[in-house]
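[Meeting: bench + compute handoff]

Bench side (C.D.) handed over the final construct sequence. Compute side (W.E.) agreed to return the predicted structure before the next meeting so the bench team could plan truncations. Sequence as handed over:
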Amino acid sequence: MKRIFALLICLLFATSAFSQDNKGFFGRLKNAFVVHDTVYIYVNQNNNDSIVDEDDEDEDDEESDERSEGIPVPIDTLNTHDMFQKVVLFDNGTWLYYNIDRSFIPYTMDSDHWITEQVHSYNDIALNDLPESVVLHLVDSIHGYCIPHPGPITSQYKYRWKRAHKGIDIGLYTGDAIYAAFDGIVRAALPVNMTGGYGNVLVIRHLNGLETYYGHLSRFIVKSGDLVKAGELIGYGGSTGRSTGPHLHFETRYMGQAFDPERIFDFESGTLRSEEFVLNKHYFSINSHYGQTDEQSLAASKKKPSEPKSAKAKQQGKKTYHTVRKGENLSKIAKRYGTTVSNICKLNGIKANKALRVGQKLRVK
């Protein structure tokens, strides 16, 4: 009796698994394709809403079965030494290479000043050695771009706290995703103990000679020599190194010289300011920033950087606002922007126990 009962259970399972219904196990395997390291199974769906005769439907099923006979089904994918190429394994014991689309990146990019064990690699090139201007092509029909993180700018490219702040700070929460700005090759992926104030940092070299820096990461998921595409996840935000709170320190450099990233990106709208960028030599001055005319930038570049004379002068910078999201409170917002709850309350004329509503705008600096 037990054997008969077990046999009935097996038959029921086999009937379900081998059914020609698209919901059956093998029905789901009929149409599959491989993306990166995952086999995605897609169900056949008939979007024709017209009435179909049952006899015609049976004939179609028989023809579909005949066509599917002998077609190998992908069952797994394996990594290779190339992150853009996988090996696809089929159920009949065969295999093939699967190439993931990528932009062309010349390997000669890693032949000049390619130093992987330190943050900066152009220390032997002086500012005077650079041309007066250079035209940088940022994007084209093949190579795209991406804002590293869609957060607010909490500190700009300027002289700050007795030192030059050669990048911008973008507010975020620890663990927020960080993306590659352009196609390129990871030159350096360094931990806190090798970078000083940068904390965990990534440096990516791009096709046009630019390098972008991503500092204070909680961790990174790429390594030196990896090819990355614009918009590819490369790490997660944090507060490692010399940092007063979670944020992304983002720099743009050419031949080792930093300039204001806001000259390239409109971080508020998440877009490029132009597909082609003329990088003038005087842009490398810490006093030269986006919003100046070339005449103003040139004049500012000749000035020596000076520290603000008073705490009041420090507060005369650009006002910063935050739009309240679901689940946020004043404490979380203050921590994100490196400020205090009492300061936010003072700027907005509210009390610390005030309930916030989603979409509400608060001045934080």
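W.E. noted at the follow-up: The helical segments are 2-17, 25-29, 54-68, 294-301, 311-314, 330-336, 341-348. C.D. will use this when planning the next construct.
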